[in-house]
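Quick illustration for those who missed Monday's session on complexes.
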Amino acid sequence: MAVNNLVHVNECGLPLNAVEWLVTHHRSKAPEREQMIRDLQLKPGSLVVDAGCGPGLWIPLLASAIGPEGRIIGVDISTEALVTAQRRNAHKWYSRQVQYKQAALEQLPVRPGTAHMIFCANVSQYLPDPAQTFAALGRYLAPGGRLVIKDIDFGTMRFHNIDAGLQAHVLQARERWEQIRVDEGFTFEDSYIGSKLAAYLRAAGYTEVQENSYLIRRQYPLPPEFRFYLQGIAEWFVCEDAPLLSSEDRKNWLRCFIDGPHSVLDQDTFVSEETEFVVTGVWKNNPLPQIRHFDMQVKALPFLEDTLV
Ligand SMILES: C[S@@+](CC[C@H](N)C(=O)[O-])C[C@H]1O[C@@H](n2cnc3c(N)ncnc32)[C@H](O)[C@@H]1O
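Prediction with S-adenosylmethionine bound:
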């Protein structure tokens, strides 16, 4: 474990964003993520923007939900992520329904007022001003369309067989360190954002804001991909030498996760819990009733080319 460096960094310098990491993370939480998409009850034929699509891991789930008449536009600032997304989703039944565009969230390459859903997973934690970005996304939504923000909240993480005091020290030290890093001009990061999302959507001007929480609970014996995920997270919590943590806490924490006699991952009492949040809202200026929303989806399809700018 190389704990002095940032962990799983992508080409834009974002930690926990390397493609390999995102793929394993996604696979390790597959059942919950499938449930998240089912709970959105997407209508067949919808136009969905996957904002901050990364390597395109949610695209198969979104495509299954909207069916062969739907359309997806995957948007990301990272070229590497977009190329990977395109490769991963090539030669699939839905390939011709998906387009990939390089852009920032605030400037979507989509005609205003056309997206039935803007889906944004695991990106809000990197937005310096989440409410402002959510407000900027509103104008791209069709009347009655929804913004969907999904993200983590590491404040909800618990390990049943790790000393509670040690866990609290590590989680709190990381949260404070993220704030200090921002003050020092590092890339913005809020890994504790999940439970704040509903407030951000309301502050941005969304109505009908709804929050769903998903408990991700795993116990011994762990699937290999979840073990890889937890070891990466453990390392990330104390990367850059964890300046706000005592060296004793740092050593004890890492010992819990590194393969060896002290690993808690190999104890039959091991249980981990983490809650992820999916929050939806309707843009305030688009208050059409649901029935009109459905009509508009059907009509919008032949004009898909007009939605791209
Ligand atoms: C943690 S990854 C999540 C990828 C994917 N949504 C997922 O859940 O697997 C975050 C992605 O957001 C992209 N990103 C971050 N800030 C962005 C912004 N302002 N505009 C567009 N993309 C952004 C990054 O390039 C990265 O691919």
